[in-house]
Amino acid sequence: MLGPVTSTPLAPDHSRTSPPRTGLALAGVLLTVILWGTNVVLLKVILRFLNAETINLGRFLIAGVVLVALAVRSHGWPRWDARTWGQVALVGLLGNTVFQAFFLNGIHANPAGVAGLVSGIVPVLVIPLGLLLGQRVGWRQGAGATLAFVGLLALLAVTLRPGAAVTPGRLAWVLGAATAWALYTLGNRPLTERLGALPFVAFSLALGCLPYVLWALPHVPAPVDVPPLAWAGVALSALGANVVAYVAWANGARVLGAARTSVWNTLAPAVSLVLSAAVLHERLPAAVWLGALVILAGAALANWPGRAGARRA
């Protein structure tokens, strides 16, 4: 699962932030980027032994229990009204059931290096969707989204070549996952600011995954001849990418500021690209690497904090 949006209800007090605390927060953000980038490659390997439904059920169960326990311990049981619970469930549906269904199928159908581009494509979609909702967009965000869109078009052009490792149909799973996460992002921001990051993410996961769980249960085969390392990989994915990484990322956003933290997220697809080549021995054409680099450059530019953004962070 991708990390939550870098909105946070607590703005960092830079006057009270000591260098060791800042360094620890930055180390957590870097750890998060590595965990998210590695997670794509890990899931690609696990898919050799378990289907997507089994993997997601295990990840939902482990991450949901741990996150809800952490949220209740830190903030108590939420006293939200029925409308708020409904909003949390609806946004969680996008970020968990819909996103995870597309994401795992995208990883299964594509090279891990291509599937890992989801977080790089999201800014291409979030910014125009935000404009439709009346949100203001600065020149830097617009330029970054445009650059990332050019990279996406280049990647699409590569998929049209005969014999390409990636086809338009397979890439559609990645684009579907990015669209779901972009919509989740837009719904996440106001709820996170109002309810708190940890309570929102914990209960949006717990409620949002229920439709997927009900759909997936009949598709879970008997676990026959599944190596223990595959189950360990499921637990590692849930605890690493969905729990440890989230807590570290949220702390980074609180201490460093959302604007500074969000830039680092563009490194996660780069980690996936490098690991897919080194570990899985994926050999992607140079044109795919070029399109991916353009997408990541656009995503970094779109998330790069300007002077005004840095002051508000």
TrEMBL record:
<dbReference type="InterPro" id="IPR000620">
    <property type="entry name" value="EamA_dom"/>
</dbReference>
<feature type="transmembrane region" description="Helical">
    <location>
        <begin position="24"/>
        <end position="43"/>
    </location>
</feature>
<feature type="transmembrane region" description="Helical">
    <location>
        <begin position="170"/>
        <end position="186"/>
    </location>
</feature>
<feature type="transmembrane region" description="Helical">
    <location>
        <begin position="286"/>
        <end position="304"/>
    </location>
</feature>
<dbReference type="InterPro" id="IPR050638">
    <property type="entry name" value="AA-Vitamin_Transporters"/>
</dbReference>
<feature type="transmembrane region" description="Helical">
    <location>
        <begin position="145"/>
        <end position="164"/>
    </location>
</feature>
<protein>
    <recommendedName>
        <fullName>EamA domain-containing protein</fullName>
    </recommendedName>
</protein>
<feature type="domain" description="EamA">
    <location>
        <begin position="172"/>
        <end position="303"/>
    </location>
</feature>
<feature type="transmembrane region" description="Helical">
    <location>
        <begin position="113"/>
        <end position="133"/>
    </location>
</feature>
<feature type="transmembrane region" description="Helical">
    <location>
        <begin position="55"/>
        <end position="72"/>
    </location>
</feature>
<dbReference type="Pfam" id="PF00892">
    <property type="entry name" value="EamA"/>
</dbReference>
<feature type="transmembrane region" description="Helical">
    <location>
        <begin position="198"/>
        <end position="217"/>
    </location>
</feature>
<dbReference type="InterPro" id="IPR037185">
    <property type="entry name" value="EmrE-like"/>
</dbReference>
<keyword id="KW-1133">Transmembrane helix</keyword>
<feature type="transmembrane region" description="Helical">
    <location>
        <begin position="229"/>
        <end position="250"/>
    </location>
</feature>
<feature type="domain" description="EamA">
    <location>
        <begin position="26"/>
        <end position="155"/>
    </location>
</feature>
<feature type="transmembrane region" description="Helical">
    <location>
        <begin position="262"/>
        <end position="280"/>
    </location>
</feature>
<comment type="similarity">
    <text>Belongs to the EamA transporter family.</text>
</comment>
<keyword id="KW-0812">Transmembrane</keyword>
<feature type="region of interest" description="Disordered">
    <location>
        <begin position="1"/>
        <end position="20"/>
    </location>
</feature>
<keyword id="KW-0472">Membrane</keyword>
